[in-house]
Amino acid sequence: MLLLQLVLFTVLVPDVDSDNDSPEPISFRTILTTSFYNRSWTENQGSIWLDELQTHGWDSKTGAFIFLRPWSKGNFSTEELVECGKSFHTFSVRFPLVFQDHVSQWELEYLFQVQMAKGCELYNREPSVGFMNIAYQESDLVSFQNMSWWPSPKGGRRAQQVCTLFSQYHVVNLRIQVNINNICPRFLLGLLDAGKADLQRQVRPEAWLSRGPSPGPGCLLLVCHVSGFYPKPVWVMWMRGEQKQQGAQQGDILPHTAGLSCQVRHSSLGGQDMVLYWKQHRPMGLVFLVVMVPLVLLAVSQATFMIFSMCSPLSLPSPFPVCP
Known about the structure:
Blueprint: H1 3-7, E1 26-38, E2 41-50, E3 53-58, E4 65-67, H2 78-100, E5 112-123, E6 126-127, E7 131-136, E8 139-145, E9 148-151, H3 156-166, H4 170-194, H5 196-199, E10 206-212, E11 219-229, E12 235-240, E13 243-244, H6 247-250, E14 253-254, E15 260-265, E16 274-277, E17 286-292, E18 302-311
Antiparallel strand pairs: 1-2, 1-5, 2-3, 3-4, 5-6, 5-7, 7-8, 8-9, 10-11, 11-18, 12-13, 12-15, 14-17, 15-16, 17-18
């Protein structure tokens, strides 16, 4: 798993009222993952992401970027793109050598993996301070901001040592600063303009209710499926009348299922929420609520599963009926 890539992704079902949400920042990041097998063998993998959408691949042999979308070049000239590619390729060669040269001092043990993520964010088309983060073995190690390297609180002595060394690379740090605070925002704005028609498209979600496998004797599993929507942000909640059932995220037990519905809110629906009602066919005693939200690393056809497990108290041991 690639830590820095995963931590930048957002959850599909926010636990807030969407009416109070502020605009989400747009993140653009380049990721380089280096696997160190021994003193003479390393392997690089690179990619570029616009939020959760991959816009570029990277050929580690030639050092060339692979444009995955018709608009992946943004508004940069061919010369600028070639220069960016050369710069990243040079970095991919020299960056692993630093760690190879300090294997003993930093107490690194083969096989290990180091990942770098650098980029920038836009808030309402206004750039924020760029970022560069480095992780070791899926744990944050150091970060760069405003011409300074900062150790992760959990990085220990190794993080302090890396910061001390990296802080000496004044020319390199200046280039990083220019890249993340000048070049990156400019390219991101051009990318958003070039891909506007594609990025701003709206795809309505599909939603339905179904029964899942019984989690135990006397239990009924209900699943609210939401899939196929774009863009990613979606609000999904089990409701009882006008009341949100926050217990669906906490595992609380409710007294009965009367009036339950699954409500879906998405930008493609024009303010008209989708509401799916569960028609109860026979009385049930207690309702055990669970929400499962998998992280789906796709731009479309994402899926959200919200699950209710309803248990009859007569078929479960007292005094606390529980579904396994």
